[in-house]
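Is flavin mononucleotide placement plausible here? Inputs below.
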Amino acid sequence: MKLLGLTCGRRHSSNEILLKEALVAGRAEGADISMIRLLDLDIKPCTGCITCVMGLGNGGPGECVIRDDWHFLHEHLLACNGLIVAAPVFVLGAHGIIKILADRFGPARDIAFRTIAKKVRAEKGLQKGKGVDERTFHHRVGGFISVGGAITKNWLSFGLPMMHLLTFPSAIKIVDQIEITGAGRFVNVVLEPQHIEKARRLGRHVAQAMLKPVEQIGWMGEQTGVCPVCHCNLLTVFTKNPVECPVCGIEGTLSMEGDAIKVHFSPGQIAMARGTFAGEMAHVEEILNNLKFFEQRPDKDEIEERAAAYKTPAFESFVIPPPDTVK
Ligand SMILES: Cc1cc2nc3c(=O)[nH]c(=O)nc-3n(C[C@H](O)[C@H](O)[C@H](O)COP(=O)(O)O)c2cc1C
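Reply from A.M.:
I modeled the complex. Tokens:
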């Protein structure tokens, strides 16, 4: 059982040390461990070309056309049974590489898109070319280590929620997540046995969950969180109920008991969270319905001509070219 660690902190610094502790603890539970330093890779931002999704729609493998180390990382992700990600908090959120990877992996690795691709391939009887890699459909578990320099926890607010963006499309079941505060310029995390122990416990949890049948995998972390699915503490609050978990996209009912805030999420909502197969499928159905609606628009043939206007000097003359193309 392969347990893969991804880190994007400084080499040999706090994030990496906590991840190594988690992985080594996982190895003691029987996992075959490995680690990738994301900042050593060449990973470019998604350009939004949607070749991956269009390819999946035609029964293809959903590979990204950008030539960089995405393919190397994708292969390691497909090969693993468990994943632990350690990311520093930069400006309240997880390191930018996490969002870049979330964008690159989101549609391309989406479990619903990939299921549809498989179905299309079977229906069309396609033999030529590659289809979706079957390892896509293996169940995987994971854990997150979010590391901030601040002592005040609200300086880490979007660290863990942003890490979920990396894993929910491929339905990786997160079983534990931890926040480590006060890990700034110095590698002082080595002086904090409670932080090291938290990381080890997370590593053990992920490795233990890897060995369990899917139906027995549940939350093993200490932080219960307001949302029963992602266990984060974020809520979108409108003027009245329902409230929403912005990570999972599910609705709950907020109530006060004395000064205690209770949020109830129904089993039906929980079952439709982003990151579940049903939740991902509902999103894909919405996209497909939108396409059907678009097809019926009487003015859709005007798009090309209307959009062409924005390529003319009237709308292009003020665009500053990037420095290497300035003559
Ligand atoms: C650009 C930048 C922004 C940062 N913003 C935050 C922040 O908003 N909240 C926080 O707790 N720490 C912040 N930090 C501190 C980092 O989270 C901390 O240095 C990092 O987790 C240390 O990890 P490493 O030693 O493994 O590289 C920031 C650091 C940098 C370089």
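Short version: Residues 9-10, 13-16, 88-92, 147-150, 155-156, 183-184 surround flavin mononucleotide (CB under 6 Å).
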